[in-house]
Amino acid sequence: MARSMSGQEKGYPFATSNIPVDPPSYYQSGRSQGSRWNPKSWTRRTIILAALGVVVGLIIIIVGAVEGVKANRYPDYFPISYKLQDTYSGTDFFSNFDYFTGYDPAQGFVHYLPEDSANAQNLTFASPTSAVLKVDSVNTNQFTGRNSVRVSSKNQYESGLFIFDVLHSPYGCATWPALWLVDETNWPAMGEIDVMEAVNGATTGNQMTLHTSDGCTMKVKRKETGKVLETNCWNETNSNAGCGVQGAPATYGQEFNNNGGGVYAMELRTEGVRVWFFPRSSIPSDISSNSSAPDPSSWGTALADFPQTDCNIGQHFGNLSIIANIDLCGQWAGQTSVYSQQDGCPSTCTEFVTNNNTAFETAYWEFASFKVYQKA
């Protein structure tokens, strides 16, 4: 019988008795390796290891998701309707303040004068348009410290919107001026909010800072235009540097003054603490107009933002007085690393204060007004 060629025509080899019965060795090897992925062939040890791998993978996924959510936490700064509560302005500006006369807690080379002496030496005075607080720039040979002033508001606040219209900020070697809020009898338990602060020549801009007891940090999502300096607000960390944010050079000092000053707005609420700065030429109409209440939700991104994410604002801040002062030398301005090396001021800080009265002619605050708003 003739052999059929149909198999050859289809490309298949002829069947012969020489073809091995078993598959090639490489095929057997492949089958053996494939069995590793068949759970039915796994040993108890393999099953346990696989289960552990699945658990670890799930943990990684869950932790990653949780951390992602945590990193994006941010409070809802919903709009608040405000109404005016207190105004500090005009010739009776300082009648709303008490004069501090005790030992300087910041170890400054300064004598804070009582009201009568400050007025007699012309270190505080007010007109219908502004109020001035300054350092003595007349007397020489002040071997025990130079005269200055520190005042604190008679009213205290738990929250609110604070509008500070500032015409001139103090600056110059040895100076440490500040505009801030604090409970003077319960620090740091009730917190401290520095709205304006700088030292010596003040060429690097304004510094806004929170100082608190333990449990307030700012290593979280924030919406601000300033530069973050530190994120732990606890006063016992970083030599009580607090959690600071720094503005541009024009936010304080000589450049600020040359531009006619400006307005600082600070909002203290459960959701956080925010600070805005508006140059004299860019003050929002709801601040400059006496007929309307300010609306922070319309002002855009704040210069400094301290959200309540990892800081319970209600627990860390309360019973706050508004304070304005000009310290000399002390724990910050008088440090050699700051006074001499960073700011390039001459001699030592205390020697400079003692002998150079005219150097303090630019060391004065001038305020147009302070206004405090509360929820309507």
Primary descriptors:
single chain, 376 residues, alpha+beta, 8-stranded antiparallel beta sheet, disordered N terminus
What does this structure look like?
With 376 residues, this protein is of the alpha+beta class. It is built from 10 helices and 18 strands. The strands form 3 sheets. Strands 1, 4, 5, 8, 14, 15, 16 and 18 form an 8-stranded antiparallel sheet that branches. Strands 2-7-17-9-10-11-13-12 form an 8-stranded antiparallel sheet. A hairpin with a 4-residue loop joins strand 4 and strand 5. The longest helix has 28 residues, at 44-71. The model is unreliable at 1-17 and 26-32 (pLDDT under 50).
Poorly predicted runs of 5 or more residues: 1-17, 26-32
- β-strand number: 18
How would you sum up the major sheet? 8 strands, antiparallel
Structural classification: alpha+beta
Distance between the termini: 112 Å
Helix residue percentage: 10-25%
**Gyration radius, in Å:** 35 Å
Average pLDDT works out at 91
Summarize the structure.
The chain is α+β, with helices and mostly antiparallel strands. It has ten helices and 18 strands. Mean pLDDT is 91; it is low at 1-17 and 26-32.
Secondary-structure blueprint of this entry?
Elements: H1 6-9, H2 25-34, H3 44-71, E1 82-88, E2 97-99, E3 110-112, H4 115-120, E4 124-126, E5 131-134, E6 146-148, E7 150-153, E8 160-168, E9 175-182, E10 192-197, E11 207-211, E12 227-228, E13 243-246, H5 253-258, E14 262-269, E15 272-279, H6 285-288, E16 304-307, H7 313-316, E17 321-328, H8 330-333, H9 336-342, H10 349-355, E18 364-375
Parallel strand pairs: 3-6
Antiparallel strand pairs: 1-18, 2-7, 4-5, 5-18, 7-17, 8-14, 8-18, 9-10, 9-17, 10-11, 11-13, 12-13, 14-15, 15-16
